[in-house]
Fold this sequence. Notes:
Oligomer: single chain
Shape: globular
Protein name: Small monomeric GTPase
Pfam families: Ras
GO molecular function, one term: GTP binding
Order of helices and strands: EHEEHEHHEHEHHH
Family: Belongs to the small GTPase superfamily. Rab family.
InterPro entries: P-loop_NTPase (IPR027417), Small_GTP-bd (IPR005225), Small_GTPase (IPR001806), Small_GTPase_Rab (IPR050305)
CATH topology: Rossmann fold
Bound molecules: guanosine-5'-triphosphate, magnesium ion
Amino acid sequence: MAIANIDYDYLLKFLVLGDSGVGKTCLLYQYTDGRFHSQFISTVGIDFREKRLVYNSRGRRHRIHLQIWDTAGQERFRSLTTAFYRDAMGFLLIFDLTSEKSFLEITNWLEQLRMHAYSEQPDVVLCGNKCDLLQMRVVSREQVQALVQRYRLPYIETSACTGANVQQAMELLVGCVMERIENAMSNRELSLLMTQSRCLPNMVYGSELLRLHERDNDADATTHRRNCNC
Ligand SMILES: Nc1nc2c(ncn2[C@@H]2O[C@H](COP(=O)(O)OP(=O)(O)OP(=O)(O)O)[C@@H](O)[C@H]2O)c(=O)[nH]1
Ligand SMILES: [Mg+2]
């Protein structure tokens, strides 16, 4: 009897998006390692980091394993990175408060998401990063307000440098995704995503379809393989 060593209830995959230089990698490092790198080393292709957390909701305690994919913002990697959209359950969309161009690009990123994500209305949290650079800020609160109202996006201002609101941004996205999961166990788009998604071990597709279970017999393993695109 094969028993998988799974000590969490949910595996959530997130994708971090935004123009090159907005601070995606730094934000992620700050979240997972509590460190900031001032040197700019542009991401090549795609990378990921992981973190565990506990999410309490409706009187229940859920152990979550977060897998956060860090994409390259450079245009030349776009076809590679969009291929990862469909496997993600939530998106952290980042712009730089000191770069108007990165803010104006947000509508294009949303359009990309609409085309390539698991749903036309995926869970997205918008982050205005580099809020520590007060003197260099060029994107006004009014501009942001108009955008978030138009697209109904949760919005938060972060600093990968000081760590301000970094954890809150990630928890905001976890909350959105978990709420969708809890509210819509029968949501076809999401359940399809969960069952087709690569590297989601021991997923059970049934009335409690999004709970992860320990795989305890070969029949379960066969079911998993059938539902998996790996
Ligand atoms: N002051 C300040 N600088 C930041 C912040 N976040 C990132 N930076 C700086 O911005 C530059 C780019 O950061 P990265 O995290 O590498 O940018 P990226 O979005 O991952 O860029 P690509 O990998 O090319 O897509 C680096 O020099 C960072 O030190 C922040 O919150 N405040
Ligand atoms: Mg990067």
